[in-house]
Specification:
This protein is mainly beta. It has two domains: 122 residues, Jelly Rolls (Sandwich), CATH 2.60.120; 163 residues, Jelly Rolls, CATH 2.60.120.10. The chain is 4% helix and 43% strand. It contains one helix and 26 strands. The protein starts with a strand and ends with a strand.
């Protein structure tokens, strides 16, 4: 194996990550036509509703019982970055923030001291299938920011920098690629400090084309996830799709797509290098902090749930929008 490749591993559910990232999951669901109430027109009989993670007829309901998705649940101590390439996500949270985003949009949420949110996948189209493709990435917070105020930020696809190279296209969700800088991340994020070298790139490489990832700072981790393609050559090593590769980030990384177009996700960043105590939706530094998080959630519900339903969705005909905690509404 090339000495610039540290590890090659098969992608599971979720995907394996490196510090400062805690978690990455890829959702690809080929939902059927909608029933006019944002759920599937198909019968849901035979599904383990409330815990439906097994692909059946091309899709999963996750924890949804009528609309697929994840009803209200808490988080503390890290950030969620939700990249919706296809389809839509309806967000609602305990801050009173809400939104419908998709078709390339990204939501960046700092859970910080504690927040509840729901993420439902509305099946808007009643005349055609509703394909959903998204990544959810968990980026850790250092101890100094574990109790930062929760923050909700939308990165609309019209504003996200997309770098068109000769044989590839790079969507720069976080960090910098060459001279092109991403939009500002959430203010208390590990990614908000330039020296932490955090980058999230979603890359498409043309058939038989290539891309060279630029060098990163010393000590930065870099993981490449291949989720579409035929044969991918990374630093001269042939790798099939549905594999991840940890590479030496201080060297340029040359990636080629052999046979057909390839799609990859790249996560990189300087490790936080702090203890991680993790239990479900809480990520702290010690077991005592974890216990305190659970106790506080039981007592305070992190501000309660201001919405009518735990699996809150927005109006059927609502376009993309974001409602912020201060009441500001952005319509797209």
């Amino acid at each position: 194996m090339n000495n610039e490749i540290k590890q090659i591993f098969q992608l599971g559910f979720p995907w394996q990550t490196q510090d400062p990232f805690l978690f990455c999951v890829y959702h690809l669901d080929h939902y059927p036509k909608g029933n006019g109430e944002l759920g599937p027109a198909d019968s849901l009989e035979g599904r383990n509703l409330g815990n439906d993670f097994q692909i059946k007829d091309g899709y999963r309901m996750y924890h949804g019982s009528t609309v697929p998705g994840f009803p209200a649940h808490p988080h503390r101590g890290f950030e969620t970055i939700t990249v919706v390439n296809k389809g839509f996500c309806d967000h609602s949270d305990s801050l009173g923030a809400a939104g419908r985003f998709g078709e390339g949009d990204v939501q960046w949420m700092t859970a910080g001291s504690g927040v509840q949110h729901s993420e439902m996948f509305p099946l808007i189209h009643t005349d055609k299938e509703n394909t959903l493709e998204l990544f959810q990435i968990w980026l850790n917070l250092p101890a100094k920011n574990k109790f930062a105020d929760p923050h909700f930020k939308m990165l609309w696809h019209e504003d996200i920098p997309v770098l068109k190279l000769e044989q590839s296209t790079v969507k720069i969700i976080a960090g910098r690629f060459g001279s092109v800088q991403a939009l500002e991340p959430a203010p208390d994020s590990w990614a908000s400090e330039t020296e932490n070298d955090v980058a999230i790139w979603n890359i498409k490489i043309e058939t038989d084309g290539s891309i060279t990832l630029p060098k990163a700072n010393k000590g930065t981790t870099r993981t490449i996830y291949i989720y579409e393609g035929e044969t991918i050559e990374v630093l001269g090593e042939s790798i099939p799709p549905n594999y991840g590769i940890e590479v030496e980030a201080t060297s340029e990384t040359i990636i080629k797509a052999i046979g057909r177009e390839a799609s990859i996700l790249v996560l990189q960043g300087k490790p936080i290098n702090e203890p991680v105590a993790k239990y479900g939706p809480f990520v702290m530094n010690t077991d005592q902090e974890l216990q305190k998080a659970m106790d506080e959630f039981r007592t305070t519900q992190f501000g309660g749930w201001p919405w009518r339903h735990p699996d809150q969705t927005h109006e059927v005909d609502r376009e993309r929008f974001a409602k912020y905690p201060d009441g500001t509404i952005i319509e797209k």
